[in-house]
Automatic annotation (TrEMBL):
This is Predicted signal transduction protein with a C-terminal ATPase domain. GO terms for molecular function: phosphorelay sensor kinase activity. GO terms for cellular component: membrane. InterPro entries: Bact_2-comp_sensor_kinase, Sig_transdc_His_kin_internal. Residues 3-57 form the Signal transduction histidine kinase internal region domain.
Amino acid sequence: MDQLIEEDQYKASDFLNEFADLYRYVLQVSDKSLISIDEEISFAKKYFGLMQHKYGHAYLLEIQDTGIKGTIVPLTLQLLLENAIQHNIGTEKNPVVIKIFINNNLVVSNNIVEKRNTKITSGRALRNLKEQYTLLANQQFEILHTQNEFSVTLPIIPLQEK
């Protein structure tokens, strides 16, 4: 952050404002069990924008939204975006393309560009998310991991009538 402030004060100010917006969102949804897909997509775009400040176009985000309404567990998309960034090493010539597709389910996938020295992770975040979906949707989500692609298919939880 110090380097960004030295290089471009206006860009640093924009970054801090965006970061503050994200932090407010996290605080707002931390006590909710479900959030609308629209809100979560909006948050995911802002979060990814911050990641692009850091990584440039080494990671790309494509969202195909068919307008299906429903809810998902808060911060699901942020966790999956972070997972793709953490486990891959994109470059501008060979970017990691993260795709979010919303239809009957919500699918988040990315091509795999493995890091050379990958450390073994616990997988705790995905396990916790899986447990939440089992409890809230009475369905588990599917994880597909091939040599070239990683994808997670999540159930969309219908909107609750109030």
